TrEMBL record, chain A:
<dbReference type="Pfam" id="PF04143">
    <property type="entry name" value="Sulf_transp"/>
</dbReference>
<protein>
    <submittedName>
        <fullName>Uncharacterized protein</fullName>
    </submittedName>
</protein>
<keyword id="KW-0812">Transmembrane</keyword>
<keyword id="KW-0997">Cell inner membrane</keyword>
<feature type="transmembrane region" description="Helical">
    <location>
        <begin position="55"/>
        <end position="74"/>
    </location>
</feature>
<feature type="transmembrane region" description="Helical">
    <location>
        <begin position="122"/>
        <end position="142"/>
    </location>
</feature>
<dbReference type="GO" id="GO:0005886">
    <property type="term" value="C:plasma membrane"/>
</dbReference>
<comment type="similarity">
    <text>Belongs to the TsuA/YedE (TC 9.B.102) family.</text>
</comment>
<keyword id="KW-0813">Transport</keyword>
From TrEMBL, chain B:
<feature type="transmembrane region" description="Helical">
    <location>
        <begin position="41"/>
        <end position="59"/>
    </location>
</feature>
<feature type="transmembrane region" description="Helical">
    <location>
        <begin position="106"/>
        <end position="129"/>
    </location>
</feature>
<keyword id="KW-0472">Membrane</keyword>
<feature type="transmembrane region" description="Helical">
    <location>
        <begin position="80"/>
        <end position="100"/>
    </location>
</feature>
<dbReference type="InterPro" id="IPR046513">
    <property type="entry name" value="DUF6691"/>
</dbReference>
<protein>
    <recommendedName>
        <fullName>Sulphur transport domain-containing protein</fullName>
    </recommendedName>
</protein>
<dbReference type="Pfam" id="PF20398">
    <property type="entry name" value="DUF6691"/>
</dbReference>
<keyword id="KW-1133">Transmembrane helix</keyword>
<keyword id="KW-0812">Transmembrane</keyword>
Length: 145, 137
């Protein structure tokens, strides 16, 4: 694997994925809710739709950096950000608007929805994956990043 | 109690993101970059995440309500409409541009707080924009 795909982390990726799925299972079976980060984030900042508990949303969102900090205290976590401010701002606007319009992101549609065999989430995941691949290919062709 | 369960779930989720390398925008970019040095890690993460969730959905079908006593509040699965499609496409473009989606962006408050701030501010602005547009209809 690592000669074919240098830098890939199949083992750690799968293990980290299991944790993400465990978190989704706790939200679903424990609280009856989808662990969809975009929806919970919107709810946490007070601009979400629906009537879900804001305390639950805030608690889940608070946990994300806590968990990441916990891992970073045990082992190095490599993070490389795009250097361009414009890239971050344009990307953020599209991610914020798009996830609300499309009712979900990688977690809600990509993990919770796919595992539920939801046709709606399968369609959304296929579309955002395709758009992601096409965008990076286009950026490469245009010589950006 | 409910908030504590959500805090636990969020913490496990954030740990999973950091452990799997998914908090790293460069790794997401490498997954989406089919014409570069392709990094398939994200596919293993999705496979890992779906595994417990499949069992969770099987159990959910047999439960009258969640363990907290709350009724299940779950979105519909059938309707594939224009907002879903356009929203997913816009999200995918932003994801490709920055290499960040909401979960990793928020988890990065602990890993690269200053670097992620412009993305997070713009993401919330984008959500607000959607909210205002929806309210204006």
């Amino acid at each position: 694997m690592n000669t074919l795909f240098p830098g890939a982390m199949p083992g750690m990726g799968f293990l980290g994925g299991l944790l993400i799925g465990l978190a989704g299972a706790i939200m679903l079976l424990g609280l009856g809710r989808i662990a969809g980060v975009s929806g919970l984030a919107a709810r946490a900042v007070g601009i979400g739709s629906g009537t879900d508990s804001r305390a639950v949303a805030l608690a889940f969102i608070t946990g994300l950096p806590l968990g990441a900090a916990l891992v970073a205290s045990l082992r190095p976590v490599a993070i490389t950000f795009p250097s361009s401010l414009a890239v971050l701002v344009i990307g953020g606007l599209l991610v914020g608007f798009g996830t609300r319009l499309g009712s979900g992101c990688t977690s809600g549609h990509g993990v919770c929805g796919l595992s539920r065999l939801s046709p709606r989430s399968m369609a959304a995941t296929a579309l955002f994956m395709a758009a992601g691949f096409a965008t990076v290919a286009a950026m490469r062709a245009l010589g950006w990043g | 109690m409910r908030a504590l369960i959500a805090l636990l779930a969020g913490t496990i989720f954030g740990a999973g993101l950091a452990l799997s390398g998914m908090a790293d925008p460069a790794r997401i970019h490498a997954f989406l970059d089919l014409f570069g040095t392709w990094d398939p890690t994200l596919a293993f993460v999705i496979a890992g995440a779906i595994t417990p969730m499949v069992f969770a959905w099987l159990i959910q079908r047999r439960l009258p309500r969640a363990l907290s006593g709350d009724a299940f509040a779950l979105p519909g699965t059938r309707r594939i409409d224009a907002p879903l499609a356009v929203g997913a496409l816009l999200f995918g473009i932003g994801w490709g541009i920055a290499g960040l989606c909401p979960g990793p962006a928020i988890a990065n408050l602990a890993l690269a707080p200053f670097a992620v701030l412009p993305f997070l501010a713009a993401m919330i602005a984008g959500m607000l924009l959607h909210r205002l547009r929806a309210a204006g209809r």
